[in-house]
Amino acid sequence: MRVENPKNIFVIIPSFNEGAQIQKTVKAVLACGYSVVVVDDASSDDTASQVKGLAVDYLRHKVNLGQGAALQTGIEFAKRRGAAYFVTFDADGQHDAADIAGMIDLLKEKKADVIFGSRFLPGAKTNVTASRSFVLQLARYLNYLVSGVLLSDAHNGLRVFSRKTADSIKLTENKMAHATEFQVQVAKAKLKYAEHPVSIHYNAYSKQKGQSNFDAIKIFFEILLYKLFR
Description:
The protein is of the alpha/beta class. It has one domain: Alpha-Beta Complex (Spore Coat Polysaccharide Biosynthesis Protein SpsA, Chain A). It is 41% helix and 17% strand. The protein contains nine helices and nine strands. The strands form two sheets. It has a seven-stranded mixed beta sheet, sandwiched between helices. The N and C termini lie far apart (41 Å). The model has no long low-confidence stretch (mean pLDDT 88).
């Protein structure tokens, strides 16, 4: 099963100071034929020049608002462009664009509203460290207590979802807690979801950009704060 028109699939890539990697990431997605929306969250580096000339829609925040806000900006833009399917995709090179097709297929096969990528399902490929995996599993259960959605990988930035989901979601959390907020809204809207194994590769660049054990601990505490103040 394959999507008839890949241009109806909009891949939203939030970017903050990702000039060293963004061009490579975008080219990999474009090679699959998808529409690409880059949301530059007020970067101070050469992100803009790195995507100039590429066949993407480039949006820019005047001030840094955070990843959640960048995703919401991209979602709203893609809706106006008539997107049928929406993909959230990290800019730092950790995701594999080849996983998107399988996630779209599963969305259609299961008649689901959302497919969450998982680095912990059988068939997934990842070089995640044992210590980071441990913290992410703790965050997974805390996330379940907050959202009611139990996933094998609650904080994976690769997701595929339908227009129905895009119309139901309104992200207001700007930091990493937006992932929890997304799941809370999925549960409240009674949207059908499933998971799909994906490849996650942490290279020196992605670790430098915050994909470290410390960042995983930050995710844990941001979920706690979300629980306390919501």
